[in-house]
Amino acid sequence: MQSSRSVFFISDRTGVTAENFGISLLNQFGQIKFKSTTVPFVDTPFKAQQLIENINTIAKTKNQRVIVFSSIISEHIRRMFDNHAYIFHIDVFDSFIPMLEQEFDTKAHMVMGLTHSIVDETKYDARIHAVNFALENDDGITDKNFSKADVILVGVSRSGKTPTCLYLALQYGILMANYPLTPDDLHRTELPNMLKPYRNKLFGLTIEPLRLNRIRTERRPNSTYASLHNCQLEINEAESMFRQHGIPFLNSTHKSVEELAASILQITNIQRRC
Amino acid sequence: MQSSRSVFFISDRTGVTAENFGISLLNQFGQIKFKSTTVPFVDTPFKAQQLIENINTIAKTKNQRVIVFSSIISEHIRRMFDNHAYIFHIDVFDSFIPMLEQEFDTKAHMVMGLTHSIVDETKYDARIHAVNFALENDDGITDKNFSKADVILVGVSRSGKTPTCLYLALQYGILMANYPLTPDDLHRTELPNMLKPYRNKLFGLTIEPLRLNRIRTERRPNSTYASLHNCQLEINEAESMFRQHGIPFLNSTHKSVEELAASILQITNIQRRC
């Protein structure tokens, strides 16, 4: 069996950019097994030197180059990873900053820590406000803030509403509420009373019955609530309601929160706050 | 005044990678104002053609090239954005896939939608499980799951515990609980009883008194709770507690959830589940 290939995502800040970028490339090589490590806050030559020694040790043990994806602002520090026999270095900044400088006809500032830090406090506060809003307006606890919500997610219990709301709040500052469709709601053809005034803010989530059955069974084994028959029934009724009232909806079964969020933003055309 | 420079982040999937990557580069040009648009799901030549026409219209109106950052798997579709007089195209895949193919001595698969979709259902379920865990163990509601938690965040009310927990759960599948230090807890020198058995899982958050005062004032104006004097007192006592019991802690005032999360992972050495 081939051993796994070692990869490092390194950064002088959180490492989110280097990791995200590196993973999207490595995912295209599904035939190779990668062992990846993210190292944030590599912001001094001393830390860089220590890391290089660690990487060299790994590479020598495996007798194979280690892949390093870096996003490090300091030219001095990032260059330290160049020209090592055992390091294959892909540098986000070196690769593109020169061509952007030419296009913009100006020099880059190269100031540390601008990407995932609090550059704009108002925008950051909007994210945190949105997280609190999502928590306070989760699971149909109350409709008192529905008028302030950007989107009200609607779906049967465990269809994926809460994680989707939290992701949209945390990443984009969207004011998300959600409302669980109960069996009582589903037996009627009308919209639930709490939702009627907000028809144009509603967005539905649905899910495959088998997946819902599995999720609910983990919570309440052997319950009517979790039974496949009941899951099928609830989902059919929820989808009928969405169609009847022209509520856009998505199936969350094979979609990550990132995909659901991107689709919801695109379909609703809601303005992001960050 | 110089008008803003138009930028598009485009992808056949969520656009998260292209946006993240592009923003980290553009942030280095703080002197330029950018007007950015993210377009996900550009997965057919027809959609690409429509988008190119829109971009060309913008560019011609402004008489300035539009910057396009793309992460599109289909070679045919991404090449459609090349060689336009009005498009400055930075292609994440074209730039690096060839050199990685050479390094790995194999061809890339180039299969769509691997980065922010559910490739590994177990890993994805771990994220969603962690979100539910964070919600159920938020704000010291109960200690019944503290034994299962990876980390228990501790701090005074509104020091940033909940958003940090949710981010670590949603991004990395970490099982996070949190416990708010109340004035009763703070007047004693001992750890709160609920926390005593979990000393080695505790991580503290602190915050500057002025910032805490501002956040609490929005919630409860003119209260003792929000007063600057009380905020100072609570923070002093909380920090004393952290120091006395050797609890690692961070100041959340100027740190984003991304930065807090990266630091907490690094300091605790907790294993990510995704």
TrEMBL record, chains A, B:
Residue stretches in coiled coil: none
Pfam families reported for this sequence: Kinase-PPPase (PF03618)
Domain of life: Bacteria
Enzyme Commission code(s) on record: 2.7.11.33, 2.7.4.28
Record-listed ADP binding positions: G155, V156, S157, R158, S159, G160, K161, T162
Listed InterPro entries: Kinase-pyrophosphorylase, PSRP
Reactions that this protein is recorded to catalyse: [pyruvate, water dikinase]-phosphate + phosphate + H(+) = [pyruvate, water dikinase] + diphosphate; [pyruvate, water dikinase] + ADP = [pyruvate, water dikinase]-phosphate + AMP + H(+)
Transmembrane segments: none
One annotated GO molecular function: ADP binding
Record's keyword terms, sorted: Kinase, Nucleotide-binding, Serine/threonine-protein kinase, Transferase
Biological role: Bifunctional serine/threonine kinase and phosphorylase involved in the regulation of the phosphoenolpyruvate synthase (PEPS) by catalyzing its phosphorylation/dephosphorylation.
Protein family membership: Belongs to the pyruvate, phosphate/water dikinase regulatory protein family. PSRP subfamily.
Protein name per the record: Putative phosphoenolpyruvate synthase regulatory protein
Species: Zophobihabitans entericus
